[in-house]
Amino acid sequence: MSKMIVLAGNVGAGKSTFTEMLSKELNFSPYYESVSDNPFLKDFYGDQKRWSYHLQTYFLFHRFKSIKKILENSDNAVLDRSIYEDAEIFAKNLFNSGKMSESEYFSYRQIFYTMLDFIKKPDLLIYIETNTDTVTERIKKRGRDMEIQTPRNYWESLDDLYSQWIENYDYSKVYKINGNETDIVKYPQQIKKITYDIKNILKI
């Protein structure tokens, strides 16, 4: 039976880099978040209230489509974000901050929970735990203007939600990585230990 690993963590935590390196180490297929081709992302950072529902629905659909493809292909896969974060972190944060209306949030969550009935749970969630200082430093380093211009309190709000969410997450096994101290680009040997642990957890 195929295995599915999902990464989780705040924006800038290093999920895409981990996805790339772990997929090579494990010989799994990588699946990345739709960022460069997302038609709503730039508009969202310009006016979050207007575009929040559109953006989050697009991300949710893209994530569902990726998981559906994995299941159809019986693929061993690494995804750079879990579908659960879409609803429990990003959409919730927008609703809490008044940037997504109650009716939009209710509709969004109906779509989300319906989708969960048609997809398998991951075999492992890898949570990259980072503080806001690390996140903002990496956001500046990768240089996406729309992220750099986002106020720090937005990332702090996401961090608070992540801390609450991961404590109650029970869809799969969890493997935590200290993202403040781990740098697999600068120290690529670190990925060997992480891969070893993952193989033991999944018995592969």
Fold and architecture overview:
The protein contains 9 helices and 5 strands. It has helices at 15-26, 41-46, 48-73, 83-96, 102-116, 132-142, 145-148, 152-168, 190-202, and strands spanning 4-8, 29-31, 77-79, 124-129, 173-178. The chain is globular and about 45 Å long. It is an alpha/beta fold and 204 residues long. Helix 3 packs parallel to helix 5. The protein has one domain (4-202): Rossmann fold (3-Layer(aba) Sandwich). A 5-stranded parallel β-sheet has the order 2-3-1-4-5, with helices on one face. The mean pLDDT is 93.
Q: How would you spell out the order of helices and strands?
A: EHEHHEHHEHHHEH
**Apparent shape:** globular
Measured on Cα atoms, how large is the radius of gyration?
16 Å
* Number of helical segments with 4 or more residues: 9
CATH superfamily: P-loop containing nucleotide triphosphate hydrolases
Helix-strand makeup class: alpha/beta
- End-to-end C-alpha gap: 11 Å
Largest sheet: 5 strands, parallel
Q: Which sequence of strands runs across the widest sheet? A: 2-3-1-4-5
Summed over residues and divided by their number, the pLDDT gives a mean of 93
Fill in the CATH topology: Rossmann fold
